[in-house]
Design brief:
alpha+beta, YefM-like fold, 3-stranded mixed beta sheet, 100 residues
Length: 100
């Protein structure tokens, strides 16, 4: 959660970068750096960034699963045997000498 104590002008960061970096590393709390009073960047420690990236990947995967389920329920999916047969046919057409 962000509070006003986590928001700093970039000029403050430029004067005391080590202080900001140390604080982010110790507290694991992101800092928002502003330019002309508007948020410009968010600074996070590496562990928090890694977790955010993993969470974002998980959300994408879950969204893909939900979309697949929805398409299947609407009758927009194909049986796996049909998909592999169609794929094999397309590969044979594209690579006739491949011995498929």
């Amino acid at each position: 959660m962000y509070t006003t104590s986590n928001i700093y002008p970039v000029s403050d960061f430029n004067r005391k970068p080590a202080e900001h970096i140390r604080r982010v590393q110790e507290t694991k709390t992101p800092e928002v750096l502003t330019v002309n009073g508007k948020a410009a960047v968010v600074m996070v420690d590496p562990e928090t960034y890694d977790q955010l990236a993993k969470d974002a990947e998980l959300v994408k995967t879950l969204n893909n699963i939900a979309l697949s389920k929805e398409q299947h329920e609407k009758g927009l999916s194909k049986p796996v045997d049909q998909v592999f047969d169609e794929l094999e046919q397309r590969l044979k057409e594209k690579y006739p000498n491949a011995g498929l």
